[in-house]
Amino acid sequence: MDVKFAPVLANANNFPVATIRATPAFCLTDFRQLKQSTDFSHCIYTRNGRAAIGLAAQQLMHSDQPNIVLLPAYHCPALVEPFLWLGYEVRFYPVLSDLSVDEVIFGQFLTKDVSHCLLVSFFGFQQNSKQLITLAAQAGKIVIEDCAHGLVDFLQQLDQPDPAVAARICSINKILPTIEGGLLYLQQPIKIKPKYCSWLEEAKGLAFLLKVPQFIHSLKSKKTPSNLSEKQPQAVASQFKYFNPEDLSSASFRHTKMILQASNFAKIKTKRLANYNYLASGLAEVSAGHCLYVAAGTEAPYVLPFLLNDANDFQRLRMQKIQVLRWEEVAYSQCKVSNDYRSRLIQLPCHHKLKQTELDYIINAMRNLVSH
Ligand SMILES: Cc1ncc(COP(=O)(O)O)c(C=O)c1O
Q1: Is residue 48 lining ligand 1, measured as CB closer than 6 Å?
Q2: Which residues of the chain carry a pLDDT beneath 70?
């Protein structure tokens, strides 16, 4: 199947720099060393979540039969591109309005020729991904679990890996204040482990985390560097928009690993759950739309998914300097929900460093949308 992604809907350059960011900002106390109970020894450090997917997909490829993977129709392209690069045939299974998957329809997608299957827990909510994993494993498929949004859950499960899952991946910088980083758990030993970058690259990455280049740039141009913060160091042109094959060979930065190992996950989880629930109750009565999940689940949430009635409210929120996100570039498929959600489902920040005033600012901005 030829995969084509829908075009972007909104141009980030038209928005002012966000003051309420989707992910937490770094401060030096994030390096504070705690006695860490998490055992990271089974994790492979990767440049990002997409490189972890690429490594898993590469390692688990068949050499003597076609590689056909099932992916959720609702996604960001970074999840799809590694498979395209490796030459997999990609098929999309539809999602329901709560982002769970109809198990009967999913079963129909598990045809004999399908070799692999990727399941996502969207935004840190499990939906019915565990049941889907069981179905896919029973059908003899190679299962990859994408926990890109659920770092805390990913780490918790390292102690009791599910034998039905061949690989699990997650993203570090969606939850922690790092500029990159991913983790990969593989059931089988990895053939080639990603290597740490040179100390010069490490220093550049650290300077970027500390916002040194952004500061110099702002002095030079007297303009706020709106796009610098989105840039990854070492970015190399690739035929893919989001996936850089060179990332497969690099581990995360050493300082990313240090921040990960110094993090207090219990505290992060408690704060994110509390922020989510505070926002969700503040948004319960807004007329602009509704929260996809009225309360946090058992996992630490990444963002709060909110379904707008009017897709143009996305721009209105960005103009108020709130970094709401949206997956606009979903690949074309038969899935009606994904085609609709690319414009209407937004992701509101609920990270653990948000202050009370910021949470209230988000709630007020959402309440004010009614006037349009
Ligand atoms: C579900 C999912 N998987 C994988 C990725 C890729 O993760 P990363 O941005 O760390 O490469 C993303 C990125 O947004 C994602 O949303």
Answers
A1: yes
A2: 1, 33-35, 221-238, 371-372
CA of 368 to the centre of ligand 1 (A): 31
Q: What is the reported pLDDT for 222?
A: 59
Helix (H, G, I), strand (E, B) or coil at 341: helix
Q: Which pLDDT score, from 0 to 100, does residue 224 have?
A: 46
| Beta-ladder partners of 144 | 118, 167
User: What's the pLDDT tens digit per position in 220-232?
Assistant: 765 544 444 444 4
If you ran DSSP here, which 8-state letter would residue 23 be given? S
Q: What is the pLDDT of residue 142?
A: 98
For ligand 1, mutation pick of 55, 145, 171 (most atoms within 8 Å of CB): 171
DSSP of 106-120: HHHH--TT--EEEEE
> Is there an atom of ligand 1 within 6 Å of 248 CB?
no
Q: Is 49 in the pocket of ligand 1 (CB under 6 A)?
A: yes
Q: Kindly report the CATH class assigned to 34-186.
A: alpha beta
CA-closest residue to ligand 1 atom 9: 49
Residue 237: predicted pLDDT: 55
* Closest alpha carbon to 249 in 89, 81, 59, 55: 55
- Establish whether residue 150 lines the binding site of ligand 1, counting it when its CB lies within 6 angstroms of any ligand atom: no
Q: CATH 3.90.1150.10 residue ranges in the chain? A: 12-21+264-371
Q: So what CATH class is 12-21+264-371?
A: alpha beta
